[in-house]
Write a structure and sequence with these properties.
The structure is a homodimer. The first copy, chain A, is of the alpha+beta class and about 240 residues long. Chain A is about 45% helix and about 20% strand. The first copy, chain A, has two domains: about 140 residues, Jelly Rolls, CATH 2.60.120; about 90 residues, Jelly Rolls. Chain A is built from eight helices and ten strands. In chain A, the strands form three sheets. In chain A, strands 2-6-4-5 form a four-stranded antiparallel β-sheet. In chain A, helix 3 crosses helix 4 and helix 5 crosses helix 8. The longest helix of chain A has 27 residues. The radius of gyration of chain A is 18 Å and the shape is globular. At the A-B interface, strand 5 and helix 4 of A face strand 5 and helix 4 of B. Chain A binds a DNA duplex (30 and 30 nucleotides) through helix 7.
Amino acid sequence: MPSDVIRGALIKRLRVSSAIADEDIREIEALPISVRHYPAETAVVRDGERATDCCLIADGFCARSKTIANGKRQILSLHIPGEIPDLMSLFLHVMDHDLSTLTAATLGLISHETLQKLHRRRPVVAEMFWRDTLIDSAMFREWIVNVGQRPAPARLAHVMIELRERLKIIGRVDGASFEMPLTQEQIGEALGITAVHANRVIRQLREEGIVELHRGRVTVLDERKLSELADFDGRYLHQSPTL
Amino acid sequence: MPSDVIRGALIKRLRVSSAIADEDIREIEALPISVRHYPAETAVVRDGERATDCCLIADGFCARSKTIANGKRQILSLHIPGEIPDLMSLFLHVMDHDLSTLTAATLGLISHETLQKLHRRRPVVAEMFWRDTLIDSAMFREWIVNVGQRPAPARLAHVMIELRERLKIIGRVDGASFEMPLTQEQIGEALGITAVHANRVIRQLREEGIVELHRGRVTVLDERKLSELADFDGRYLHQSPTL
DNA sequence: CCCCGGTTCCAACAAAAGTTAAGGACGCCG
DNA sequence: CGGCGTCCTTAACTTTTGTTGGAACCGGGG
């Protein structure tokens, strides 16, 4: 995979959330990145580990999660190409959660050292990355609301729409359908419900003609009903650099 | 309230999470802060508003929350003296949630402009504040797990222990007891359950001789049982500057 | 081609949490 | 001191979600 393809999605994404100068883009394009391939369902960094690199997703889907004493797992966020899910490890060196692949994935590793140097050289880029971690944080806040206050069908609808909005930015939504490569077990872990209940909810949305979910692909059947159910307000994604 | 008292808790807190030079402390002590008093249960900044200052809690308790379309509210975090709950507004100018007081509170307002200038002058301080927002983010992750995976009694126990650990840093734990000035309604909103169920859970913990909760004050009766129930691992608070 | 493991799907029952309703405690204010 | 409002408390009932267990489906590897 050529270097510009790897960085393309990142720059596309940064442009949406921050104003960014050409000079800074060149700096980012010059960043030394080492590429690694991971199979599906593999740990990239584990809870408790000490990270020395951040990873930029070049291709594939990832998820962050935490596992508690009784063995239950909670998925905290989903990640798509162009994102750096463990940017936080730059300053929080020991991981407090897992980062793993959902699908087979290509990741670009950027060393902490490289990033620190870039920040010293270009404080504006540092601010941009800071802003990126703050958006990450805003997404966690919305995730708390989702899991804490919405009934299960609304939770699923909300996660779907959030994912779609983010996929749109990198041009990965194909009409009424987009990828969401989670098993029902994982959907349950994301929504804070069991896999059995996740299945019930998926069936319900299908029977009501709202969305179809098949083989890791979502097809929206009734946009109106879906967005009403999801109660989605994308402001928390902070996609307007001017504001 | 004298200026050094206002800044004291902040510096105490920053020392715990980051290594910090005397020179930088002096910079922070020189920050122009305007002090305001708020009654209990008052909005400080509202969802959708555009912030121009960050507020340092000098005294009192605050909470951040989001309210969804059906009127339900989710509390996202609790905040104590020494914290800057809306530091994120520095780069995410329009608020995606509410910040309000729980008790009567004294807040020190620091303008965004002042902070930006300080960051340009002392990048190390910027990194320290960045790290602070990342710890904030780590706390949201744990809150997701709490609301998503733990049964209600464990949720309550976990929130209590987290609050206690943070109060310890600023010397606000008095033996087996500490402040937690939430109504049962608010406890429900924090845990993602109804007030009625919150009451059930509180009663249960009292009947089992684990904790007593009375008038906004928690008294731990059985430390062993409490920490077993809470499944608490404080690593996510990232309180070790060396790591 | 068929078997195997992982998923999906489903039903019956159990447990947890939400809803509604109403009485009691407590502090504040007139 | 009495009344009012907020919070706390509890019970009875409903709904949602979890649990258990099992069948059908599907894709990949032998």
